[in-house]
Specification:
alpha+beta; Bactericidal permeability-increasing protein, domain 1; Bactericidal permeability-increasing protein, domain 2; 7-stranded antiparallel β-sheet; 6-stranded antiparallel β-sheet; rod-shaped; Lipid-bd_serum_glycop_C; signal
Length: 439
């Protein structure tokens, strides 16, 4: 599942989940220890691939032995097997993440050359390095653009045992200075692990983090800002990623006239990940679309399902408003539905509601296609919002619960709005709501 092409992505997941902050967010993702463990499982394969690139340089030396001074040279060393079987990742409160690895194993093949007295011989060797332990601390934060940053806060490693098996003529000579060889190889490997980890962070992970997008275009009107809001709240149990979660207009970005409220997640940590969304995210969306003049919808008769008896024409409405039919006999009508203010979402435990204020302007379509105003209704309704996460996106649907109407103005004389309840409720639920939900 993991390939080298997604190495930086897997490593950046944990980093991104640490760089959040002090300003109240509109959206929060909480990664528990279970979630960190899952990320660790995915990332360890990648880390193992990187550490397998350890290069062991040729080395030479000399040692005193029972047969006199011995000169040796080891070269052509290649890693044949590299395993990191045991690992653990955990939050470091106020800092970031700690990665601990133990029980690591490396197997290396190479060639050896020895000169002693007047003897010169050579052969092959197999080296097994056991008990490799690595401890890496990652300090994370965010830059001024809201992108995550990462730095190596500390790194240490240790090798418990080195075993070398030599082959070839007079291979017993190597046994005379085996201790020197073991120590030299141990030091050569230990000296490269932490620099390799540091180089992987600076050359691969850091550049990737600087290219991460912090905004996403929703449509031709709006985009969403999901940049980090500041330093991470990291506890011993979890890491919270706090994102701005703010909609903005593409053509002209203006701050919303309200601030995000405090968002508190439950203390439960039994799942890998938790999502928290405040009404700020949805209310900035409403503000943007209202300001851009996009919360205006038109209904004409060809949009009404054929099986609905009350057509959008003066003949049908004339049954409810007789004077309308007298003034405009057998003519089509049009409804212009617009929000009179930015819709506001209210999120409470177990209940998400929205109470928009709407104007419905009814027109008669004259024979020359011009519009004659008929009446203007003011509508107040309460809608239930159902929110879910689908394919990585937050999606929502509205369901109307009740509608209250008032007649603001009439160009066809006075009438009771009660008689229009059935028609207006039907038009809203069957025509307007599907359009709103698609947005």
């Amino acid at each position: 599942m993991v390939s080298s092409s997604i190495t930086p992505v897997l490593l950046s997941v944990a980093v991104y989940l640490c760089a959040a902050g002090a300003v109240n967010p509109g959206f929060v993702v909480r990664l528990t220890q279970m979630g960190l463990d899952y990320a660790r499982q995915q990332g360890m394969t990648v880390l193992q691939q990187e550490l397998a690139k350890v290069h062991l340089p040729d080395f030479s030396g000399s040692a005193h032995s029972p047969v006199g001074k011995v000169k040796y040279h080891f070269d052509s060393m290649k890693i044949r097997n590299f395993q990191l079987p045991n690992s653990q990742i955990s939050p470091m409160p106020g800092v970031g993440l700690k990665l601990s690895i133990s029980g690591g194993f490396i197997e290396i093949d190479g060639r050896w050359h020895v000169k002693a007295l007047h003897i010169s011989t050579k052969g092959g060797f197999n080296l097994k390095v056991e008990g490799i332990s690595i401890s890496v601390g990652l300090k994370v934060g965010s830059d001024t653009s809201g992108r995550p940053t990462i730095a190596l806060s500390d790194c240490s490693n240790h090798i418990s045992d080195v075993k070398i098996h030599v082959s070839g003529k007079l291979s017993w000579l190597v046994d005379l200075f085996r201790h020197n060889v073991d120590n030299a190889l141990r030091k050569a490997i230990e000296n490269q692990i932490c620099p390799l980890v540091s180089n992987s962070i600076t050359s691969k992970l850091e550049p990737l983090l600087q290219t991460l997008k912090v905004t996403a275009k929703i449509d031709n009107v709006a985009a969403i800002d999901y940049s980090l809001t500041g330093p991470p709240p990291v506890t011993t149990d979890c890491v919270d990623v706090q994102l701005k979660g703010e909609f903005f207009e593409l053509s002209h970005r203006t701050p919303p006239p309200f601030s995000p409220p405090a968002l508190k997640l439950p203390s439960d940590h039994s799942l890998m990940v938790y999502f928290g969304v405040s009404d700020y995210l949805f209310n900035t969306a409403g503000f943007v679309y209202y300001t851009a003049g996009k919360l205006i919808f038109n209904i004409t008769d060809n949009m009404i399902p054929k099986d609905f008896s009350i057509r959008l024409n003066t003949s049908s409405f004339g049954v409810l408003i007789p004077q309308l039919k007298k003034m405009y006999p057998d003519m089509l009508m049009k409804l212009k539905i617009s929000s009179t203010s930015a819709p506001s979402l209210d999120i409470r435990p177990g209940n998400i509601t929205i109470s928009p204020h709407i104007d419905i302007q009814a027109y008669v379509i004259l024979p020359n296609s011009s519009l004659a105003p008929a009446f203007l209704l003011n509508l107040t309704t309460t809608a239930l919002a159902k929110v879910a996460v689908k394919s990585g996106w937050i999606v929502g649907n509205l369901e109307l619960s009740r509608v209250l109407m008032d007649l603001k103005h009439s160009d066809v004389g006075p009438f009771s709005v009660v008689i229009l309840n059935t028609a207006v409720n039907y038009y809203l639920s069957k025509v307007i709501l599907p359009q709103v939900n698609r947005k």
